[in-house]
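so the lab meeting is tmrw and i was supposed to have these ready like two days ago... anyway. pasting both below. for each one the top line is the aa sequence and the line under it is the structure tokens. i havent really looked at them closely yet so no promises
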Amino acid sequence: MIRIAPVGRALAVVAATSLALTACGGGGDTATQSSPSAAPASSAPAAKGDGTLTLGTLLPQTGSLAFLGPPEFAGVNLALKEINEAGGVLGKPVVKYDTDSGDTTTNIASQSVDKLLAQKADAIIGAASSSVSESVIDKITGAGVIHFSPANTSDKFTTIEDKGLYFRTSPPDKLQGRVLGDLVVSDGNDTVGIMAMSDSYGSGLADQVAKTVTDGGGEVVARVDYDPKAADFSADIAKIKAANPKGIVLIGFEETAKVVQELVKQGLPASKHKWYMVDGNTSNTNYVDMTKGTLDGVKGTIPGAAAPEEFQKKLLAVDPALEDFSYAPESYDAANLIALAAEAAKSDAGTDIAGKLMEVSKGGEKCNDFKACVDLLKAGKDIDYEGVSGPVEFNEAGDPAVATIGIYQYGSDNKYATKALEYRTGNIDG
């Protein structure tokens, strides 16, 4: 269940190259162009590139995280626009195919991956949901294709069997959980209730929040791990109400709107009990139709550094309808890193690209956009890509070793200010 170490990856790349096995790729539904990658574990098939870097996106167009789709697509599209304007990868435009990841209530993600593999994608960017990614990771990495998520935060992916082909630009939940737990305690909540959706994302994040609250001197007086597909949450909220916590942590996706309505109905409004949300439900579209002030003062955490104003303007030029920018920087960085690793590998094969992702993310001359970085590579220099989302220095598990968590606050319009109250940066391993 452990990812292979860097040395093991390097050996696997050599073996894959010498065997020259047939490529297994895949693509989705849009066009731009791709490049090869190499380096996974011994059990990963060697993917032979065709000279064109092909990216597939597996991002939410429908389902419980559909609100995250627009900024994630915009981040990838902006990166590919800049990459192709700079001459593409390996002398050719990058090709892109877009597909829908849906959510765990459907089989959309599996069908989308089949489509992307049939279109010979070298790398697939997505999914947003950790549970969705977990459901398709074997299919993607088993084909020798890179699985790169801009938004998966479940701690499971640090040790999951991935043949050395899974990477992410968002940090594991143990960092977000520490930041959120510290915030809850520092806000004076010595008694805390937790409502968490029951899956690898919700329960894992709840575990870390609970540990941090307890370590900080607080007490988790009630915890409910609920079925997000439930039609009614009255019994779950009744358990929280009975414990009468000062602070209430809500960990979920779009179903949180129903949870919020039930909290208010049972006399636990944010004006009396401090509410806290996480990246899965901190949304500017999910609560806007509620009574004004319902979420006033509620705080939420979202992984990632501030999206600079100039970057936001570029995203809006790509998609003028964007309402927030969650995970746009991580998506942008994912596409750039894949493209730079392909250039460094001089191959568009998934396994070759994987073998260079750690190398282009740290230890060399710093650069922060594709053109500047690729010019250094062509000059024979080692590079260190500094992303919009942060330094993005991969550790041996494919996780960013250092990451930033933003703390946001809702206003009376039930939207959170896109400028964070503060950012907290820390090492993933504590």
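ok protien two:
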Amino acid sequence: MSGTDETPTVSAALLEIIVCPDCHGSLDLTGAELVCQACGLAYPVRDDIPVLLVDEARRPG
């Protein structure tokens, strides 16, 4: 299991094809989250696996 101080690894190829499940905006890896550039939802990355569930996302604000 990854420690809290480690930055997750998400392949560049995966980042090119995945989108926000809510609005289909592009996602950028920011710390330990994938943040949607359109709506601002932040999806966690756990053990280097993106959790792209809207119910698991952190809402902006």
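from a quick look at the 2nd one: The chain has one helix and four strands. The CA atoms of residues 23 and 39 lie 7 Å apart. will dig more after coffe
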